[in-house]
Amino acid sequence: MISRTRRPSKSSGGAPDSPPDFAPASPPASPPDFAPASPPDFAPASPSDSLYRRSSERRANERTDAVPAKRGKPVLSLKGRALGYLSRREYSRAELRRKLLPHTDDPDEIDRLLDSLERDKYLSNDRFAESVVHRRAQRVGTSRIVGELKQHQVDPAKVAALAEQLRDTELARARAVWQKKFGEVATTPEDRARQMRFLASRGFSHAVIGKVVSGADEFPDDS
């Protein structure tokens, strides 16, 4: 039997083709080894540890108790409250008594305090009456001011004296109020009635209102 020898094929370079090199695949890597975690060791507390812990807690509580609590606003005494009111403006005795009533269960205590304040000249109905005239005379008439003083139980003799002074300037004060609000004589009955109602609501007398609204300049005040 004749064996045939296979001729090597020729490449372009004339050298025989060598078979491709294939490296055998490496086996897959083995998974990492994880050792199971051992449970933590808890040793039972010794009697000395328990005693130390109780001592620490007791000292902490003592430090907490030693911190003073925050104090609120100090409560004013009745006299301190009354002087606070009087430091802002003048009060009548009746008005100051009404202001102090919600702060005590003993009305007699208020009366004793008011007597003391009047003796020491901190409280004065006369000064209150004069302050009302000073504040209100440029805006309202005599009857309004007199009514306010009577509500505050000012002495009738003091009220009468102040009313007399106010009537002497009633016309000039009413004209100033009218000038600021209207500034010109009414030309219709409706406007005239409106001006008269306004001045009457301010407490000016009817005689003074008639003179102001009619445009009279110089008339004696016979109100």
TrEMBL record:
It comes from the Bacteria. Residues 1-74 are annotated as: Disordered. This is Regulatory protein RecX. Modulates RecA activity. One of its GO terms (biological process) is regulation of DNA repair. Gene3D superfamilies: Winged helix-like DNA-binding domain superfamily/Winged helix DNA-binding domain (1.10.10.10). Its main location: cytoplasm. Residues 51-65 have a biased composition (Basic and acidic residues). GO terms for cellular component: cytoplasm. Pfam families: RecX_HTH1, RecX_HTH3. The gene is recX. Residues 17-42 have a biased composition (Pro residues). It comes from Pandoraea terrae. Residues 80-117 form the RecX first three-helical domain. It is found in: Cytoplasm. Keywords: Cytoplasm. Transmembrane segments: none annotated. The lineage of its organism: Bacteria, Pseudomonadati, Pseudomonadota, Betaproteobacteria, Burkholderiales. Residues 168-213 form the RecX third three-helical domain. Belongs to the RecX family.
